[in-house]
Amino acid sequence: MPKLTIDHIPVEVPPGTSVLEAAKTAGIWIPHFCYHPALGSVGACRLCAVKLLDGPVKGIQMSCMLPAQDGMVVSTTDPEALKMRSLVIEWLMMNHPHDCPVCDEGGECLLQDYTVAGGHGIRRFEGKKRTHVNQDLGPHIQHEMNRCIQCYRCVRFYQEYAGGSDFGVMGSARRVYYGRFQEGTLESPFSGNLVDICPTGVFTDKTARFRARYWDYEMAPSVCPHCSLGCNTVPAARYRELLKTMARENPAVNGHFICDRGRFSNAAVNDPARPRVPLVDGEEVSWAAALDATMLRIEEFMELYGPGRLALIGSPRLPLEGSVLLARLAGLIGTEYLCYFAGRDEGERVAAAVSLLADGRTASMADVRKADCVVILESDLRDEGPMMLLAVRQAWRSGAPVFLVGKHAPLAQALAVSIEAIELSIIEEVPLAIFERAVVICGTRNNPPAATESLAHTDAKIAYLFPGPNAFGAGLLMKEHGAVALAEAVASGRVKGIIAVEADIPEALLAGVPFVVAADWLPTETVRRAQIVLPTAAWVETDGTYVTFEGRAQRFRKVMASGLPIRGLPARYHASPDKPAPLHPPRVHRSVSPGGELRPAWRFVAELIERCGGDAVTEPFVGRWERLRGLDPEGEGVMLWEF
């Protein structure tokens, strides 16, 4: 391994490591724009200049393009290197607008940081600044081309890494332009990553434009709830409103990026129509009154129908804490019907997949990116797990063939890769034995249990896409407690009451059930049909745990306080309802914020457990669940399960 010295610090790194990366291992930060860990180096910005004092190479060099070699003596603080970097900043600022006060990138802009760090503060060039016309790139991305520093990050990500073809670089010399041939919405399902990857303010989040500065945000490490992949995110909120979501790096999971679904799906959290206050027969009541009414009606239900006729319903989107407690509540009530899945087929598929993966054959997204063969088995990745598309593309870029078993040929276009075999009939037709790191990707939506069983005879790792962020955890509990699917329970004719906790129940299954209690944060059909409604906190309003498709338990942290966003408060929350002030905070003294009477789903279940005579539940209890091993409290997630 090469040994070199950087700023008098001995460094030893693997072969092929650049000097810039080697400096990072020693805690030395070399300024750079064009380099990105996921995209590599192109030497376009010339900002990472260092001086080599001794060794096989000497003089001013670009550290991102220079492989570390034995005997190198590198200085990042040499006067010549400092002068080179300051000149790079100066010529970049010749045409850059002085609009930091109105730029949404302010506070998180690399150009801003490096300009200050380099000491540049006076514009010596007296000519006119070069200007460009911006484009409308759709409802999510704001384009401000005048702020561009030509680092090529956006194009390298969009075209090379993500496989998009409707965005690129045009022009020549000093007339370089990054955009589309014609205005229009960006087509890639990963276009939102342009916001994170751009080191200046060329691409910003239009949905959060002019709403807050970086230092104004409430932020916490979180996990995306929109599929089972468990991508790590950083939601940003202000004034009880979720403004935007940023990618959080996790090399074993999503790497550096997230999909547009996870980035821009904030409307449901901010929706004023969310359940915000407890309701009993349509009337607003306190939480205590709603819980009292729930227990009273459960007692009346037991007297009328007898024990065992009440079903407790969870779902794949219910965090692990609530799912675990739901099983405990079922034992206290004595019900025969504990359900984590609404449809019978869905429950059977998840149970079969969990059983198959019990031998540790799960493949992470990192495994898919490094695979030497990928088989996609009857899965629509763009719908079931968009970031898996990106992982498959990285494997293909490294030379791995991609086989498709099924009828989802449009995946070839979505991936921008060549599919080696289209519409194969069975998995046995793929020669997996000749590959060392083969991965089979399949989903529970289109694959019956029989297809899952056929995977037991392959030696490849398996990436199984589940129907929700905690579907794997629900599958484990279903297997442990012998839970059934709700459709099966209702079909028996014995179910006359339902307590649904963050569960999406089809209207057909609710039709013959006279008693419904719903605890949820979404205005679902179950909530609309329920006699008692308990509003729960969304994932950004509480701490919790999701078990991802690979059996990895990841903690997400509370980002913001519960309550209605200040912008758009209904008139009834103001001192003068006849003169609402939708952009001004309420002028009423309260113990809680308007619409803030929300509790985590697990707390609602815990209250029922205590009222049924069970032991009190304190937070955090899930870390004591004996099936979790190595649960990382910071949210990185390194858990594997045991039966």
TrEMBL record:
Residue ranges annotated for the 4Fe-4S Mo/W bis-MGD-type domain, each copy included: 217-273
Segments forming domain 4Fe-4S His(Cys)3-ligated-type: 80-119
Species per Swiss-Prot/TrEMBL record: Geobacter anodireducens
Cofactor: [4Fe-4S] cluster; [2Fe-2S] cluster
Domain 2Fe-2S ferredoxin-type: 2-80
PANTHER family: NADH-QUINONE OXIDOREDUCTASE SUBUNIT G (PTHR43105:SF10), RESPIRATORY NITRATE REDUCTASE (PTHR43105)
Keywords carried by this UniProt record: 2Fe-2S, 4Fe-4S, Iron, Iron-sulfur, Metal-binding, Oxidoreductase, Quinone
Enzyme Commission (EC) number: 1.6.5.11
Pfam families the record matches: Fer2_4, Fer4_Nqo3, Molybdop_Fe4S4, Molybdopterin, NADH-G_4Fe-4S_3
SUPFAM superfamilies: 2Fe-2S ferredoxin-like, 4Fe-4S ferredoxins, Formate dehydrogenase/DMSO reductase, domains 1-3
Protein name (database record): NADH-quinone oxidoreductase subunit NuoG
UniProt keyword annotation of 4Fe-4S present: yes
Gene Ontology MF term list: oxidoreductase activity
